[in-house]
Amino acid sequence: MNYLTIISSAIAVSSAVLSFWALRSRNLQLGYDLARSLSTELTSAEISATRSRLSFYRRGLAEFNDDVLNEYFSMLWRIERIRIGRQSLAEQRLVSGTKPVVRFLDDNIRWHIGEWAIHWPELRSRVQADLRLRGNEPLDDHESLRALLRISQEIDDLRHDAVAAMYELGRVVTAEQGASSEAP
């Protein structure tokens, strides 16, 4: 083997390694950008106002109206977007090395998801009761609730009471779905 072949091979291998690390670094940067964006779904000024209104309603300090229902689903859909983004990052961990990004995201949303997980069953019960009082159909939130239930299971070190609340809510939703599928 001549030296030119060895040098050419070394350059080719070095280029491939550098390209891999550059791509991985870029993917990590994009992952952190996505994680920050997803975290904003729970911490922006807009969501702060929504969170406050839903909290006042849950505590009985505000009346039920269409805005409450819109904000109820808006919050669930935000959590769905976060879960979809988190799932995307988690599934890229082997190729793109996004495990630290998922950990970063979890660290930034853990408290928020834990709080929603604890209070969501009570909020949901109040909304359902007010819908019944108005003569409306029951909540059709089962699919959207799945994101909250799943992300509560996926985030490491989520408060035990939050996990327990989500487990119980999952049982209730499963029972409701079974009852609605048996209805004529």
Describe this structure as you would to a colleague.
It is a single chain. By secondary structure, this protein is mostly helical. The protein has one domain (28-182). The chain is 85% helix and 0% strand. The protein contains seven helices and no strands. The protein has helices spanning 3-43, 45-58, 66-91, 93-96, 99-133, 142-154, 160-182. Helix 2 crosses helix 3. The longest helix is centred in the N-terminal third of the chain and has 41 residues, at 3-43. It is elongated. The N and C termini lie far apart (80 Å). The model has no long low-confidence stretch (mean pLDDT 87).
Write the layout of secondary structure elements.
Elements: H1 3-43, H2 45-58, H3 66-91, H4 93-96, H5 99-133, H6 142-154, H7 160-182
Helix pairs in contact: 1-3, 1-5, 2-3, 2-5, 3-5, 3-6, 5-6, 5-7, 6-7
